[in-house]
Each structure stands twice: as structure tokens, then as C-alpha cells.
From TrEMBL:
Cross-referenced InterPro entries: ABM_dom, Dimeric_a/b-barrel
Alphabetical keyword list: Monooxygenase, Oxidoreductase
GO molecular function annotation: monooxygenase activity
Domain of life (superkingdom): Bacteria
SUPFAM superfamilies the UniProt entry points to: Dimeric alpha+beta barrel (SSF54909)
Domain (ABM): residue spans on this chain: 10-73
Name of a matching Pfam family: ABM
Record-given protein name: Quinol monooxygenase YgiN
């Protein structure tokens, strides 16, 4: 399977004032625990530290569906929604191109 066939999301979430650190913690833990993602980047806006951007590329459509219907996703979703100042933006996409990770 090539990257171009993997489902992905671009997500933007804005935490309530003072809740940004918890939002970032939950988002990161969720990505690490789920095992559904091939790769992800969670970024914090320089001008507004309560805004989270996430680009998540799933291993497969099946992995994405399994995670989205899992108890972990339900648990995280409920807590994350409670931290948000506004509804999240989630855009389904498929990667067009990406460079491989640089060696460490």
C-alpha cells in the first residue's frame, strides 16, 4: 500500500483558555496508544498556544475505522470535547507526497 492510498485527517482544535496543555497531552497519548496511525504531526500555533493542529495518516481504512469505533476513541473524544472552546475542524484527506523521515 502506498501513502497515497492511506486515509488521513487534518484537524484543528482550539482549547478553552488554560486548557491547551491538557488538550495536547490527550491528543498525543491518543495517537501513541491507538497504533492506527502510520505517522502524525501535532503542532501548536505560535500565536495562540491553545490551538492544536494535527495531521494524521492512518495505516489503512480498516485501521482508521477500528480506531474511530474503539473504546479508547470514545473515552478521549468525550474528554477532548469538554476542553474545546469551539467545535473542532476535521478535514478528511489523502496524502499526495511526503519525504521520508530523516535518520536520527
Amino acid at each position: 500500500m502506498t501513502l497515497k492510498h492511506q486515509p488521513a485527517y487534518i484537524i484543528k482544535m482550539r482549547a478553552k483558555p488554560g486548557q491547551g496543555d491538557r488538550l495536547f497531552e490527550l491528543a498525543t497519548v491518543g495517537m501513541e496508544k491507538s497504533g492506527a496511525s502510520d505517522r502524525f504531526v501535532i503542532a501548536r500555533e505560535d500565536e495562540d498556544p491553545d490551538v492544536l493542529w494535527n495531521v494524521e495518516v492512518f495505516r489503512s481504512e480498516e485501521a482508521k475505522d477500528a480506531y474511530e469505533n474503539s473504546p479508547l476513541a470514545d473515552e478521549l473524544r468525550d474528554e477532548i470535547i469538554g476542553l474545546l472552546a469551539e467545535p473542532p475542524m476535521r478535514i478528511p484527506v489523502h496524502p499526495y507526497s511526503a519525504l521520508p523521515a530523516a535518520p536520527s
